[in-house]
């Protein structure tokens, strides 16, 4: 019997994932890799103006890669978009440049709380409103009003079913300054972004969602959720940045018009329960890690295995292969292989 969800996938016969796991095991045993990661983290956590601008330009290219693959940015006509975790602003810059009629709203962690500086060109800012806030702290993340000092109203422009496109690219920052920081904030951030996106995207709109590790059961259930709510779902791993990491993008088209699109509100309410658990659940009431069972309202792990495993492998195969090829190249450069 397979012991983990990854083992379940491997049992189907997936050489791409098997190769990736073997490379990871080889790399994690080498001290040189720890030193390389420590160096990378230090540079990222102490980014100067030049490095921020580098990230900005590279993220523009990442969004261009995504758009070239999935055609998610309409080049003409009105386009209203929401960019969660938007700074330094590369994704927004690409959208505004691609569509001269596009107008957007962005939410990003304040700089004085450890967030990135906005590098968006001045000429583009008249079509974009930037709202500095922690996206995990909005009242609308809960199905009922909760009186707690960490919570606040979201931006008034963030109205239900308003946006043609919602981009979810926020990631947990080690530099974040917060009185309520917890190890599971990475899960809270992802769940928060998905709630806000499903609330704000118009029926038939698009979502671009950054995820990690399709072999993780929680990620697999999120992929399934996006797949059943949307007319079409593709996955893509850009080659401009982070090829050695497990991150990738799921691009959903026709959100709300999928096979289970009528269940959108029910799914949002399930996500709100998961947010509540990761924020105020746990033994001490300070939240807890999310796990696969928190998404059983979407699909149980047993049913996921029985009905969706083939589709998941189809969506994950290129992701695993690109990461494995990048790790192989990097490890050889580091003298690990």
Automatic annotation (TrEMBL):
Pfam families: FtsJ. Residues 59-243 form the Ribosomal RNA methyltransferase FtsJ domain. GO terms for biological process: methylation. GO terms for molecular function: methyltransferase activity. InterPro entries: RNA_MeTrfase_FtsJ_dom, SAM-dependent_MTases_sf. This is Ribosomal RNA methyltransferase FtsJ domain-containing protein. It comes from Heliocybe sulcata.
């Amino acid at each position: 019997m397979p012991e983990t969800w990854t083992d379940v996938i491997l049992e189907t016969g997936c050489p791409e994932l098997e190769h990736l796991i073997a490379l990871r095991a080889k790399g994690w045993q080498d001290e040189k890799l720890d030193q390389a990661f420590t160096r990378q983290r230090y540079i990222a956590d102490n980014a100067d103006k030049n490095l921020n601008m580098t990230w900005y330009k590279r993220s523009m290219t990442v969004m261009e890669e995504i758009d070239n693959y999935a055609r998610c940015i309409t080049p003409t006509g009105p386009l209203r978009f929401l960019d969660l975790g938007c700074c330094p602003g590369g994704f927004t810059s690409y959208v505004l440049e691609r569509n001269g009629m596009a107008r957007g709203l962005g939410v990003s962690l304040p700089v004085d709380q450890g967030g990135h500086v906005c590098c968006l060109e001045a000429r583009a800012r008249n079509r974009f409103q930037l709202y500095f806030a922690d996206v995990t702290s909005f009242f609308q993340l809960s199905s009922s009003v909760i009186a707690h000092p960490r919570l606040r109203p979201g931006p008034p422009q963030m109205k239900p079913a308003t946006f043609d496109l919602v981009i979810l690219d926020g990631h947990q920052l080690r530099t974040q300054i917060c009185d309520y920081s917890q190890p599971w904030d990475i899960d809270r951030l992802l769940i928060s972004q998905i709630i806000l996106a499903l609330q704000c995207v118009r029926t038939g709109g698009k979502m671009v969602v950054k995820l990690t590790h399709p072999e993780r059961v929680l990620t697999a259930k999120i992929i399934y959720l996006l797949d059943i709510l949307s007319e079409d779902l593709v996955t893509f791993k850009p080659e401009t940045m982070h090829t050695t990491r497990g991150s990738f993008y799921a691009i959903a088209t026709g959100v709300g018009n999928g096979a289970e699109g009528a269940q959108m509100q029910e799914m949002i309410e399930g996500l709100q329960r998961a947010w509540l658990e990761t924020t105020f659940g746990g033994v001490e009431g300070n939240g807890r890690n999310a796990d696969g069972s928190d998404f059983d309202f979407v699909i149980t792990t047993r049913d996921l295995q029985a009905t969706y495993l083939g589709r998941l492998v189809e969506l994950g195969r290129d992701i695993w292969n690109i990461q494995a090829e990048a790790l192989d190249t990097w490890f050889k450069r580091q003298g690990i292989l």
